[in-house]
Design brief:
Length: 173
């Protein structure tokens, strides 16, 4: 998109990628996520909301397009300022309750989240990427994700006030 002349902002959610703090010792080592406070709802309310605000402040009159992958697509519905987005492309942003997955994947996901992931997160204080989730995640992020995956209607079974923001989005998908 940038090569085609679009203004583009990419970012990492707090506690991941380049937004993860670096350790005081060691060469460019990431700081431990033990004790780091973040959840998926924090990612939407703080990180995605701030990214949209940042773009709007810089590009006042231009239409904003949004590309969201996985939780990034789900977060569009959770953010209060989603009315700033005129169109969106969502990739692999399905409601990921294990019940909607096909066999045997649904059982693998259920078992991993409940019998491996949650106990591992409680033991270590964070979700380690080496367990098969791609990268380290803050404890609160993984636990909220596991709760949503286990709920029949995914995040829509939660009591988050931000769910009301889904109805506000009027852009094109």
């Amino acid at each position: 998109l940038a090569k085609r002349g679009c203004a583009v902002l990419t970012y990492d959610y707090r506690g991941t990628g380049d937004s993860r703090q670096r350790a005081l010792t060691g060469y460019n080592q990431p700081k431990s996520l033990v004790g780091f406070k973040a959840s998926m709802s924090d990612w939407a309310a703080q990180d995605v909301t701030a990214a949209v605000l940042w773009m709007r402040e810089r590009y006042h009159s231009l239409p904003l397009a949004y590309v969201g992958h996985s939780f990034g697509g789900q977060a569009l519905g959770l953010i209060a300022n989603n009315t700033e987005i005129s169109r969106a492309i969502l990739l692999a942003s399905q409601a990921a309750t294990w019940r909607l997955m096909t066999s045997p994947e649904k059982y693998r996901v259920y078992a991993f989240m409940n019998f491996v992931g949650v106990p591992l997160v409680h033991a270590l204080g964070y979700a380690p990427g080496w367990a098969g989730i791609g990268e380290d995640l803050p404890k609160g992020v993984f636990l909220q994700w596991a709760e949503w995956v286990s709920s029949p209607r995914y995040l829509f079974d939660s009591k988050m006030p931000a769910l009301a923001n889904f109805a506000k989005f009027k852009g094109e998908l």
